Amino acid sequence: MKKIKYGMVGGGEGAFIGDIHRIAARIDNRFELVAGALSSNAARAASSAAKIGIDSERSYVSYEEMARVECARADGIDAVVIVTPNHLHFPVAKAFLEQGIAVICDKPVTLNLAQAKQLAEIIEQRGSFFRLTHNYTGYPLVRYARELVAEGTLGKIRLVQVEYAQDWLSDKQEETDNKQAAWRTDPEKSGAGGSLGDIGTHAFNLAQFISGQNVREICADIEAFVEGRQLDDNAHVMMRFDQGAKGLLWCSQVAVGNANNLKIRIYGEKGGLEWSQEEPNHLMYSPIGEPTRKLLRAGHGVSEIANRISRTPAGHPEGYLEGFANLYRDIADALLLHQQGLPIPAELQLIPGIKEGVAGLQFIEAAVRSSKANSQWVTLND
Amino acid sequence: MKKIKYGMVGGGEGAFIGDIHRIAARIDNRFELVAGALSSNAARAASSAAKIGIDSERSYVSYEEMARVECARADGIDAVVIVTPNHLHFPVAKAFLEQGIAVICDKPVTLNLAQAKQLAEIIEQRGSFFRLTHNYTGYPLVRYARELVAEGTLGKIRLVQVEYAQDWLSDKQEETDNKQAAWRTDPEKSGAGGSLGDIGTHAFNLAQFISGQNVREICADIEAFVEGRQLDDNAHVMMRFDQGAKGLLWCSQVAVGNANNLKIRIYGEKGGLEWSQEEPNHLMYSPIGEPTRKLLRAGHGVSEIANRISRTPAGHPEGYLEGFANLYRDIADALLLHQQGLPIPAELQLIPGIKEGVAGLQFIEAAVRSSKANSQWVTLND
Amino acid sequence: MKKIKYGMVGGGEGAFIGDIHRIAARIDNRFELVAGALSSNAARAASSAAKIGIDSERSYVSYEEMARVECARADGIDAVVIVTPNHLHFPVAKAFLEQGIAVICDKPVTLNLAQAKQLAEIIEQRGSFFRLTHNYTGYPLVRYARELVAEGTLGKIRLVQVEYAQDWLSDKQEETDNKQAAWRTDPEKSGAGGSLGDIGTHAFNLAQFISGQNVREICADIEAFVEGRQLDDNAHVMMRFDQGAKGLLWCSQVAVGNANNLKIRIYGEKGGLEWSQEEPNHLMYSPIGEPTRKLLRAGHGVSEIANRISRTPAGHPEGYLEGFANLYRDIADALLLHQQGLPIPAELQLIPGIKEGVAGLQFIEAAVRSSKANSQWVTLND
Amino acid sequence: MKKIKYGMVGGGEGAFIGDIHRIAARIDNRFELVAGALSSNAARAASSAAKIGIDSERSYVSYEEMARVECARADGIDAVVIVTPNHLHFPVAKAFLEQGIAVICDKPVTLNLAQAKQLAEIIEQRGSFFRLTHNYTGYPLVRYARELVAEGTLGKIRLVQVEYAQDWLSDKQEETDNKQAAWRTDPEKSGAGGSLGDIGTHAFNLAQFISGQNVREICADIEAFVEGRQLDDNAHVMMRFDQGAKGLLWCSQVAVGNANNLKIRIYGEKGGLEWSQEEPNHLMYSPIGEPTRKLLRAGHGVSEIANRISRTPAGHPEGYLEGFANLYRDIADALLLHQQGLPIPAELQLIPGIKEGVAGLQFIEAAVRSSKANSQWVTLND
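Output (structure tokens, whole complex):
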């Protein structure tokens, strides 16, 4: 099968997320990394490129140049993966889209909502291919949970409780040499949200993805617990969905003892579901009036839709990288169809895109706005 | 040791909670049940009394009569246990307190805040002995969690996340012959709160008990998901504490798959704690920068304060009834001291009383008020 | 309902297990403790009796005298509870049985198999009432597991895997002032088995109780890991059952990190079960080809047989003491029927008695014999 | 870094394990698949090769031809991966080793012990590079467990309890069209062990790997529970180690409800460890007299040795494929050194090789021999 040739912007040495994307793209052998602007520091860009096997000729310092040159090459990249800090997402995406190159972008999609809307416009006008790596939607049992809800197995949904707790910013990491902490707590690079943008958007996306409902309005109380921190490191959000469900969203980077605890529970009139990212290979399903079932990835009672994106039998744990790889695999299939002007089937349309990106920024900005107004309810599309 | 002679109001046949209190009072052999007004239905009162071994002479239909007669008897009861629906708590408590009889009362303490304050006044004026059975405070590891916070082990507290989820009211149980459901969903008998009063007050009490902080203001969104239900069956509450912590409280009786899932997590600058009522024999403790510890009831590293109220070694699970019994045991000791006019030591003062009762009603009424005002922040002592 | 008047031999101050039995007997209010030979030390016997409310007149130093005197009293005890070290079980039981007093005895039933068989003979000849407190059979979900097997829900049983791991004898506790450790590691008081007798017999009993099969032969490798210890502190046992199942039994008192980890798994042609004593309120049930179910005590899908011995709804954890109390409650009912010469219904016959006691000693002695013969298979009724 | 060019024998369409190896080899981008004899069926070999991107020129039907031709090519493969049924391991490995091509082989290493010893001789004589994919040794926390034992953190090891339970052969799958079941239950293709060879060898290897001790002798009871099955589907094994530890090994493919439940517990004089393959991202560590710690992969308190083979931060679950990939990554590094005649550092010598392969066959054959002799103890190197 044809491999997607891709380049990467960001993700040089020392950047955690670049490696993640590269492994995820590699797992199913559908992508080939051939170009990069891995760092704005020329030396680091070059050494990073060498280390990961990008030809020095196709290692760029400037992403604008990369977009231009790659577009001009006969063997130019099909797609670019953007893994920079948030403030660069928009200009980089714009540069590549304008050269007709497909974009795979880390979340949140842009620095602010205005940029996100502008990007959406570009994409729509050009008919561009754009995908957003809300990677947690790639877990097979997340897909299965979504399917159970969509099929009505839980009945009308009443509650969506989602939380995403970490602890790595419990103290002032941004004053150490922790680069990850530095840009994430800097409004210039991160945007209006701290934990809201970094992890809250994942929780928000997951809540909408599984429930199949959009959040209509939220009421938020955000806080920077670490003294002197400019962006929130904790957020409490009450949600009301457009089809009547309600929910709570909690995101935190100061919850000591939590590594990467993303967890979602959905309750409807006829059943409940519970799934936790740290132990992603089972999904608890409770039909009303019956005992709870422990559903295993690729195990008994799980659908083909979920099994399609499993690689190993039940009991052979898959994890974060495989979930991420599921996005890449589906993106490869979808991009090939897109390149041929063919329609993209429903199962490949589950991958988040610009719509989810805009929603994420609406969420961040609404949460900030609500919190500033002492937790007034604000609608997401204000 | 001298046994406390007690009577019971409510708790006749078919009432779940009466049995619970009687077992809890019996476990440590410090109480003797000698009188009762177990039901307002004369036949049921008599048969219930006979069944549980109360002399027919001391089985009453009217609690007022019981208060009067028992007070007059030389061998009259030392204390009354009130396990009626909420609307009777106040008049019954008042009747016995006015006869000089100590009161042990189920929560919420009264039907509404006004009554609670009136009761507080009576208690203060008379110097009465009054205890409120927020039984979850009786779990040894809840006590230990409280101690860890108080000693500063977690540092300054930032977050208090508490939830209490059940599912038994997911459909309209109040229209079946479920007596428990009927009065709990009836504002005349239950008060302004549905799930808020029945279980939310437990969660609220636990949050304050362990954190050692009082909630200053809340912002709530309550809901009756089951059509036609008069009281909330779900509540989302954001909290701000008086010493700077924040928190979320979720209570629900429509979360399918949850039996009696009361869970609390506390995070401070230096550590985190997690405890779940359904598996109460361990407490997860995470010191910042170190691996999480699994502390066992009566196990390594747990304090004498917690061990004092354990009966069995680690690994021999204690549960709901033992936690409840811990309240009764301490109440017995405290009441004996009270009867002798002696001071009650600190360790026996952990048992909730009228102060916690008033706070519970403040919580319920503030939540209802906030929710009606579209989730405005309201202070608890408005 | 008539209360059983009972006395206790052993269980004075400092003896853990005496309190356990007294609480268990008290929980359902069917027993009244009126006499005791709590210690062979006269002073301790007297002070223990005083402390727990036994009339000094009925506090004995000699169990023989107690048996004689209580038998002679019009208001003498109905039953005696024996909670001494093992070597006294036989003479004490014999003394009371010969006075026509019912016996409730801790396990293992006697010091050795010869005594057990002799006791069985006495019981049979006199038609005595004798029960053995293999308390783990009192857990509701253990009863339910047994029922599921008996009903054929699992199909023909293939495997019975049971383990009972503790760690409190990981070092030489018997050389400290730990009285519990001292007698348990002393062959004169404990018998041929160390961990085998103390906890292995519980595991063995549970395996037979749930599977409904008897162990026909075993192959064992026992060990005293702590230097200088006279009795085993660890045993590995392979089992073959009389109806074709096989199994492993592991008991250990040197498995660091295990408090009281008794766990059993049963597998048949059509399903599997898993239950753990430290979290006794759920039972995992896996029908072949379907997802695993988490069955809750008193929850959905659990039978009346199990629910009869639950006191609280699902989600309100019951534990070790409640399981123990279930034995006492059923013993009370059975003893009342026995006293009247009435037949004892099947549901009350689940309580272990002398038959299980003999089997326990057969197990211990066969394990020792097999191990001495370098793990030859030996039948239990050799 | 130079990539290893490799070929594969076996692993055509429909063979689960071929994909696994290919993904594992791909994750860290150190291998390139360029040749294959994927099936002995010419059509399937060709279509499988085409599907996974092997040039038709280098897709072989005969492994002998492949060995010969690849050896002769200037750009011939550095290594071959053998993922056939067991009976082909030996001839295939021999063919490639004799052409000077490195071998990466699935377990058990050969059909029987005689072949394994012969293979060992070839490897020693030729100084060949040979590695065996006991993939469970590639989990970071397995490596860390091994390190904790080696450093003496647990003190002298007393107990090694290991189990590997599955349920996919609970009924007669070999009579359906389940190819995996067919060869695994056929002595001609699988060897003397059924579950013993397929999963028992993994358990055995893990026990030795973590404990750092060799099993000296075993006492086994093996069984084919499914009627008419020729090889064991369940085995009970008691073990004695050469440095004094003892242990139990249970492997089963008929334990309904178990997917791929490999679990190991190690107990020493000073501590205990517990790790489960199905939730491989934490390791429970219990120091004597202290609370149990939950150690997270890449989390607090875990060593550099373990972190070196982690790709994601704590809380981002890694699984089976990443563990497998850790073997491939280390094999790549080791093979490059081997090709240059350089010494292989200790950290790369943890990958199992022919020594572990011989031990695995000794285990299988000793278990069969012991079981046939009615569970006599037999030494492994008889």
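The CA atoms of residues 162 and 249 of chain A lie 5 Å apart.
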